[in-house]
Amino acid sequence: MALTDATPLRSRPSIWAQLARSTSVLIGGFLVVTMLVMGLLAPMLGTRDPAEINPSVRNKTPGYEATIRDDEGKKIPVAYRFGTDSLGRDVYSRVIYGARVSLAVGLTVSVISIAIGLLIGLVAGYVRWLDGIIMRFMDGLMAIPAILLAIGLVSVFRAGLFAVIAAIVVPEVPRVVRLVRSIVLSIREEPYVESAITVGTPTPTLVVRHVLPNTIAPLIVQGTFICAAAILIEAILSFLGIGIPPEIPTWGNIMAEGRTYFRIFPHNILYPGAFLALTVLGVNMLGDGLRDVLDPKMERRF
Amino acid sequence: MSAHPDTSSAPILTLDRVSVRLPKSGDRDFAIEDVSFSVGRGEIVCVVGESGSGKSVTAQAIMGLLPKGQLTLTGGSISLEGEEVTTLAPAALRARRGQRMSMIFQEPMTALNPVERVGTQIGEVLEIHTRLSPAERRQKVMEVMEAVHLPDVPHLVDAFPHQLSGGQRQRVMIAAALVLDPVLLIADEPTTALDVTTQAQILKLIAEMQARRGTGVLFITHDFGVVAEIAHRVVVMRGGRVVEQGTRDEILFAPREDYTKMLISSVPSLTPPAREAISSPVALSTRELSKTYRSAGFLFGGGRTVHAAQNVTIDVRRGETVGIVGESGSGKTTVARCIARLIEPTAGTIKIGDTDIATLPERQLRPHRKAVQIVFQDPNRSLNPRRTVGASIVEGPENFGEPHDKAMARARDLMQLVGLSPDALDRYPHQFSGGQRQRIAIARALAMEPTILIADEAVSALDVSVQAQVLRLLDDVRQRFDLAVLFITHDLRVAAQICDRIAVMQNGVVVEAGTTAEIFANPQHAYTHALFAAAPGRDVRFGSGIAAAV
Predict the structure, then answer these.
(1) Mean pLDDT of A119-138
(2) pTM, whole model, 2 decimals?
(3) Engineering a disulfide at B22: which of A34, B1, B26, B94 sits with its beta carbon 3.0 to 4.6 angstroms away?
(4) ipTM computed for the complex
(5) What residues of chain B lie within 8 A of the CB of A204, using their CB?
């Protein structure tokens, strides 16, 4: 029998090339990266201490310029680009620093929910007798609203980052579990998984080697949507005063602060609101674009 | 063969140098190129070719159903009863479809709307193209359902598709296609998804419709048995071009082109070759093997019990190929999966050598897993797409502690053995064709040094020429490694060529077992008789270069 070489079929463009061609990935990625860089480089972007209170410049409109004395008594000119709030804090600095909390919450929540959800989902999908118990428990968790849970957690523990993250993670985990479980249930029927069983691959290796890789792409996509939801919920919780303590600048806190004088000084709500909207839009567009590229079911033929 | 067409009048369908361009990312420039043939009134023309030959695109081009933006008609003319259809406006073309020409597809389930009654679906054609009243429409629908021999029409007309069997659904499709008496019926692999006995009935029905109504039929198929059964004329396609065309007898008995000769000689013959009896020790034996599924009832009341396999007793000796033949739902795959212990049998024993593995728990089963290996049907799914074929082949040996270098060295030998270049080990499955992937799956099974190899429809998804090569390979490794091969198939031709002994299964029960020669020469059970009678193209002897009439 003649030896035949593998037929190199016309190769598809690599994942990276496909990502670079997707408009929503580019726009979403640009927005997210901008916000990330902004948060990381906050001290270098002409900001002041976001917690610094200056009673002489309360409730100033955007673009207000003042001269204030520093610690040594020298007079220095200060421009309040986004105006000040009712305590005389610089809204620009607070908004820039606020990106840190929002993105930190978004990333942590998505990483934690996916890690926990992946583990539970793999177990539920592979250990059949545990499946019913786990899934009913997950259904129960899913019924808890994040805001109600946050109120409960804050009243038991202290208001803070931990309580916020926990309050958002708990209702998100079941969604990840459902996703992972459904993928596991379809992949374990694949002939290549059954072949691996017949060549004696131990179950843990089987799951990690043949099942787990199939969950990565959908989980990345799911992760972006969790991230966007977490950023929004964090802002809501802070706005309601059950999230991050008010001295820490977060977009929700800034908006809560500005709520009282919204009719006279709308900038206190509009600037953080705009940044929040852009960030969530960016993350969602990134997620949409990733789904189009990574999800084989959406793949166009030819 | 069916009633002869009226060849005196002008053809109803003529294709003249039709070309369809593929998008730039395709693996060739044209889906079909310079395709010319014609279909006469009341004539059945079979377009036959392997996958990728462009036969389905040809049908889509005629119907004006080429996927927009992907395939474009770039040249040639298609005329239906003298009228050029390539330049027709969409509305006019829509009117021709259904009234003058209609089409039936491979999957009768997906072609029917699951939430609409079958009568309504057949009547939809009438609703769109005629001004009949609802009562007249229903009358006409029932008439055409009678004509395609659907049973109990007054009830069936109000049934939903899921209440019908596969063959009945295909009859409904044919009824919907014929209700307006089109001059041309295009059938795209209409029997490929059906069992052989059902296929025989549908083929008979199509031939009957053609004879009675004078419909011209363009029948697309990959199966030369079907061609031999119903074709008047045959068009052989390859890579988007027409290789050869002629009458049925010309193509089957006196093909001119090498490609046609090769295709015909690749079709396995229904006559089993002489085989020596094998008396080596028994490698695998099942006794009273049963698998029962129980679906739990909702709250109260018992669930349904399905006997997927019942009291199956099979012995396979070393160096012997035993076939399990049956239609879908016969339980043949259930038996294979029990033996490979992918599922646990409900009752009975499975002896490998001296050990009964039927109920061993996974931990004790592992050492015995080496002995039984399985090759699956679908070459696209039997290898992990994310791992190199080398990694897939050495996975098993490494599970049992073989060092990587040694396993890789053996993988190289095995690749050579199955006819692939050892350098291809670091490639990924998508870089191989279906047949090559099936060879790799065989190499992976052989890497475990099994004593028993299960081939579960291992060649059913392959083109006929590739199928012949993989069958030869399976026979070759059986001899070389003295393997006991359990060969699961629905295809009598394949079974005739490769099996020493055959067990025929129906509804989970082995109805007849014996040597291949005995069973083919003198079938005892009524079901076996029915299977043989249904095999298409029995009056043509394939497999010996050029076919011959029996």
Answers:
(1) 91
(2) 0.82
(3) B26
(4) 0.80
(5) none
